[in-house]
Design a protein that fits this description.
The structure is a homodimer of 133-residue chains.
Chain A lengths: L7 H12 L6 H11 L5 H14 L3 E3 L7 E3 L6 E5 L5 E4 L6 H11 L1 E15 H8 L1
Parallel strand pairs in A: 3-5
Antiparallel strand pairs in A: 1-2, 3-4
Chain A binds a DNA duplex (25 and 25 nucleotides) through helix 3.
DNA sequence: CTTGCTGCAAAGCCTTTGCACCTTA
DNA sequence: TAAGGTGCAAAGGCTTTGCAGCAAG
């Protein structure tokens, strides 16, 4: 890995992501960091986010729709999405049994299966309460 | 659902997706259909794909990176991606046990968990053969 | 005839990138 | 002072959309 410098921009981006109480996107981070460094550019935010992800200090979470999200939580975990409001919460990892992976491998004729993407969708309690109304 | 008309454009788009031996994107479909209907527009292809997906005749498969893919196979199934060449193959569905879903629901404090997204990544046999060389 | 569909082109959204200047180590 | 980072703005990839004319039912 190429050596990376400590700049105030990158530090501010890291701090912003780390203090987020959700899974922010680049725009949110940009707005946050702009308060401290008013002339920072969005391009720099993207570059810092990419660099921090590569270093493992944050996690990049690309979604099928919408912008990439950045996750301050680098521990192993999964996500659940509320289908109504879009809220995303962390949940503990779920293990897929080896024999299931093996059957997937056989069904696909792949040489190996090394990664599984698992994500949940549901209805968060806030939206459930509103719906009930 | 609003009633939808049968146009030759839509029929040609459906036929193109159905005869695809892979998971085509809009551009591929556009190129295919252009042979029959040379002046069809890409916008129409997108609209037809959206309409056919809504009708359940094909399946839309949005990826985190790259274009949306359209799947001629509407039976319940999952996908495995080769991390080297990007090839995508279908695999049979994998059931997540109810008690696992329930523990996810509890961990997230969601009212319910109704959908699970599961996808595999690995190394396809063709790429494995090349790597071995 | 009515209303949805089409072709065209423009715009939109998110992200990356080229470049000249600046700053870190 | 060398090399990576920054700001700016432009471009890029993919998709959607406004509009006026066309065609299916």
């Amino acid at each position: 890995m190429a050596k990376t410098r400590n700049t105030k921009q990158k530090a501010a981006v890291l701090a912003a992501v780390k203090r987020a109480k959700h899974h922010p996107d680049a725009k949110w981070v940009y707005e946050q960091v702009s308060r401290e460094i008013p002339n920072i550019s969005l391009g720099t935010v993207y570059r810092a986010l990419a660099s921090l992800s590569a270093e493992g200090l944050i996690r990049e979470y690309r979604q099928a729709d919408g912008p990439a999200l950045y996750d301050p939580n680098i521990d192993d975990h999964l996500h659940i999405h509320c289908s109504v409001c879009g809220r995303i919460e962390d949940v503990p990892p779920v293990e897929i049994p080896q024999d299931v992976l093996e059957s997937v491998r056989r069904a696909s004729a792949f040489a190996k299966v090394d990664r599984v993407h698992l994500e949940f969708h549901g209805l968060c309690s806030a939206c459930a309460a509103e719906t009930a109304t």
